[in-house]
Amino acid sequence: MKGLAPVVIVIIVMATVPLLGVSNVTLNFLIVALMTALAGQGWNVLGGYGGQYSFGHAAFFGTGAYVTAVLQVRYSVNAWLAFCLGIAGGALVGAIVGGMTFRSGLRGSYFALVTLAFAEVLRISASVAPITGAGVGTLVKLDLHVAALQFQTRAAFYWMILALVAIALIVTRLIERSRFGVWLIAVRENEDAATALGVNATAIKLTAMVISGAITAAAGCFYVQYFLFIDAGLAYGSWISIEALLTPIVGGVGTVFGPLLGALVVRGLGEGAQMVTGGEAPGLDLVVYGCVLVLIIWFTPRGLIGGLAQLRGRLMRPVSIAKAGHG
Amino acid sequence: VALSSNSVEPVLSPSLLIAAIVNGLLTGAVYALVALGLTLIYGVLHVINFAHGTLLTAAMFAAYFAYRALGIDPYLAAFLLAPTFFAIGYALQRFVIGPASHGEDRNMLLVTLGLAVIIENALLFAFRADTRTIDLPYAFSGIDLEFAFLPLPRLIGFGAVFVVAAALWLIMTATDTGRAIRAVAKEKLGAELAGIDVAHIYAMTFGLGTACVAIAACLLIPSYYVNPSAGNAFVLVAFTIVVLGGMGSIPGALVGGLVIGVVESLTSLFFGESLGQIGIFVLFIIMLLVRPSGLFGARA
What would the pLDDT profile of B256-272 be if each residue is shown by its tens digit? Predict the structure, then answer.
């Protein structure tokens, strides 16, 4: 598979990071960044390739997180199985929300708002339902064994999230090169034209949403295993919906590596801004973060990957002209 | 048995029901005010303005300090803050949001999101997370209807919403700017071909929407609190109202606001305080699925 070579190289390079003796602080930063990247990769399948901008990916993240936590704590289900069921839960929510919205033909801002509303309904429900621990949240018991999907070292958690990101990268790459991917992009570019050519746009979008929901749910499942706690605000809060759409858009929508690059940059910016302000001035770091965000959108409207491609194009052009001159 | 029937009965008694509806209408008017600004921007630019809530917060801080530091009554401050925030909104759209988004909807949404992060955290940096309130001398006077007490600030707010809506209606129907705004909302390219400066009209719309938020802030501050995230609570509800009433529709925002206020109040009455907002979102989802163009919008 020639198309998978860049993915394999990136993953192998990243997998060596814990072997370089980096500090736990750095590893923790990378783990959270990779988790954000995973949530963004889910968003990217639907939003980037399918053009359906969701504002409520917290619905998937939170469902994955709650299914993983509640099954372990209340029903003593094995953590590995709970993790898989959490992903399935995200896919199911994707099928339900997608089935309702795409069937009634909601697009654009309407689709964005309806996803946002679904996430809010889930957030409020989770904050009062007894099964989720209501306002108190759910605490997963500390049990540092592989059987409980908890690890002694941060490096192990790092490899776990990296493996999940790798799977998502491969899935995205395969989608991009498949007939389904071509249909999905056709729907993004012009849904009416695609339908006229015989593409079942509703089914395509629904499939993309199920895959998207499953990937973002995996990030939620990982969140629970790593932090061992979840409540309604963390699971279904708007923070994760925003990060899930921000990372691919900053990195490059509809590109395989966009969410990964975007997550590292966005998370890095947050950390950098906090370091500059020394954590002494609440809010100031996020002001810096917001400013840089606006500037990135202002000057690289197609995301960082688009910007890099443009830069490369600019650097390459004089060379080719010079060559032509010689010839 | 007698005890349980007693505890059920008050919930269903007509006076409690009426009190809940009246309260819902008063709250709904406040929602409608915030939604008025949003519906204008959403209706013309067709973009979700993420900065709406933080601009509301900023205006609430302005009204707060106008009263605390300068002793200006919030209702008078509205006449000062509305033009100030109009200018701020105009400048933001003309010089930041417009150029930064390169005419793409998704970028516009992200820039407003970035602005929201900047404004909210600048307020947090300047004023910390403290919650502040003002005590107007007449805050606790009002009308007692036996089954419900109607505080004066909320009654003034209720009346002012209709005045603001009427003023907006006049601007939209009787002025050249209003006609241009409606033209751009309907057919951007056609308006541009007819010689309308679309960038200017976008900025005017954004300015008007932000001025609405400033007035809403002045009406809110006597009976509400302010902290750096105070405005966020209104935004999701305002989006619901905008969709319910139809994008860009002023009467739609008014009726939608009142309906949402009553729905929230009744949901709280029957299902408990914490579930009050669920009623709003369930109504929202049903509305989007059944009639996305809203009560007052033209069918798409």
Answer: 999 989 988 888 888 87
Is A276 at the interface with chain B, CB within 8 A? Answer: no
Residues 89-128 of B with CB under 8 A from A: 96, 99-102, 104-107, 109-111, 113-118, 120-125, 128
Contact A254, A49 (CB under 8 A): yes
Please count the other Cβ atoms lying within 10 Å of the Cβ belonging to residue A34: 26
Residues 214-243 of A with CB under 8 A from B: 242
Distance from the Cα of B125 to chain A's closest Cα (Å) equals 5
Q: In 3D, which of B43, B12, B45 has the Cα closest to residue B242?
A: B43
Query: What DSSP string runs through B30-76?
Result: HHHHHHHHHHHHHHHH-S--TTHHHHHHHHHHHHHHHHHHH---HHH
Q: Closest approach of chain A CAs to the CA of B141, in angstroms? A: 34
Residue B136 tokens read as 């107007």
Residues A193-232: tens digit of each pLDDT: 999 988 899 999 999 999 999 999 999 999 999 999 999 9
Query: B 209-248 residues with CB below 8 A of A?
Result: 228, 236, 239-240, 243
Measured distance CA(A68)–CA(A162) in Å, rounded:
19
Alpha-carbon distances of B252 from A30, A291, A293, rounded to whole Å: 48, 35, 34
Contact A120 B121 (CB under 8 A): no
Residue that the structure tokens 């530091």 belong to? B69
Q: What is the dihedral of CA A36, A41, A43, A47, to 10 degrees?
A: 140
Beta bridge partners of B150: B143
End-to-end CA, chain B: 55
- The most distant pair of C-alpha atoms in chain A lies apart, rounded to whole Å, by 77
Among A297, A298, A302, A304, which would you mutate to test the B interface (most chain B Cβ atoms within 10 Å of its Cβ)?
A297
Q: What is the pLDDT of residue B299?
A: 42
H/E element, B93: none
- Are A115 and A123 spatial neighbours (Cβ–Cβ below 8 Å)? no
Its ipTM equals 0.80
CB contacts < 8 A (A, B): 122
Specify the DSSP element, H or E, that contains B150.
Answer: strand B149-151
Structure letter (DSSP) for residue A17: G
Phi, psi of A302 (to 5 degrees): -100, 20
